[in-house]
Amino acid sequence: MTAKPRILTGINRAAGPSSGSLILIHDLYGAMPELHTTFLGRAPVDPPWTTAFDHMITLATPKRPHGPDFDRYLDELTQEVRALIEHTRPDAIHAQYVGLALSLAFARTAGNIPIISIAHGPDVMAAERSPRERETLEEVAAASTAIVTPTTTLAERIDRLTRGRFTDRLAVIPWGIPLHKAQARDQPPAVTEVLSLVHAGRLDENKSTITAIEALALTHHQHRLTVIGHGTLREALRHRATELGLGNRIRFEPFLPRTELWRRLPNFDAFVFTTSGLEAFGLVLIEAQAHGLPVAYSDLPGVTAILGGAGLPYTSGDPRSLAQVLDEMGCDRHQRKAVAEKGANNARRYDIANTGRHLRDLTLHVVRGRMS
Predict the structure, then answer these.
(1) How far apart are CA 206 and CA 220, in angstroms?
(2) CB hemisphere CA count around 319 (13 angstroms)
(3) Which is nearest to 10 in space by CA: 89, 155, 118, 124?
(4) pLDDT by residue (tens digit) across 164-195?
């Protein structure tokens, strides 16, 4: 195979660094220069992002993901995808988000082109909530040559949803970050018992930022928390902080581009991770570790393994449990230093170059199988 294999992929959102999944795939395809990638996205397009893909196409079908018009929307999107497949003639398709509309359109139009579907987490949560979404996930899984997940925990949930029909197609490829860009903090742990804490991510029910806010009202020390991100619960969280008298200890900041977030991370004493439901991987945990921050984290299945045991767990969704961990962390700076050092070592396991190598090898394997 002399020419680069042609890959068609995409995410049915505005093409810019607005979410962890979009940032991840930008890094991922930048780490696979051996593949020629065409990316399908939505307007508006952030121009700098075109550098990660060889070609970018803006989807034209108006997006209508919910309501009675969904079937018509899916038919129109499928027709558009069919035409794009005929035009780009890919050797393989990477269907991001198993079971969402764009992946379903790929499944219905790929023909003999192999599909590698890639689970991100929200797709699996949607299938667990809704019978229709579950049917969609099963259809995409059935059309896929391989189903990639970042953790064994997520693979097991997909396996349960599909009743073990596609166990042999599941492949675990851990996600990663561009480690060479991370800069660990160069100052020693703060001597004071009052910590400068940071939480970053979507502000929604699953991320459970409310746990961190209510924990601060229960700590013995006057820790400060910076909440970075946007989401549907932002104003409700702000109101709760005010209600608890924490207005001077909790600062809300908007979503930050990763370059700015990474520049800021080493200035904090610790990272607080509060997700209470499914977490596909938790790249922000690795980002925090790579920047030298100890992590207090909710004890979800699989998270301890991702962190390499380098973190301080608390009972998921329990503010009192988190408050206790934060106070213990504040009182023992030697513990914070040890956890931070162990975390920095753990983060080295998760370089995006490794993720790219494994996905590239899997892609070449299925492409060669198609051509043989």
Answers:
(1) 27
(2) 12
(3) 118
(4) 999 999 999 999 999 999 987 666 666 678 99
What is the C-alpha radius of gyration for the chain, rounded to an integer number of angstroms? 21
Task: Average the pLDDT over 11-32 and give the result.
Answer: 89
pTM: predicted TM-score of the whole model, two decimal places: 0.92
Q: Are residues 201 and 138 in the same domain?
A: no
Q: How is residue 3 written in tokens? A: 């020419």
Q: Residue 228 belongs to a domain with what CATH number?
A: 3.40.50.2000
Same domain, 198 and 340: yes
The DSSP-derived string for 101-150 is: HHHHHHHHH-TTS-EEEE--SHHHHHHHH-HHHHHHHHHHHHH-SEEEES
Which residue range(s) make up the domain with 62?
A: 6-176+351-371
1 in a domain, yes or no?
no
Read out DSSP for 330-341? Answer: HH-HHHHHHHHH
Q: Which residue(s) pair with 57 in the sheet?
A: 40
pLDDT in tens, 340-367: 999 999 999 999 999 999 999 999 999 9
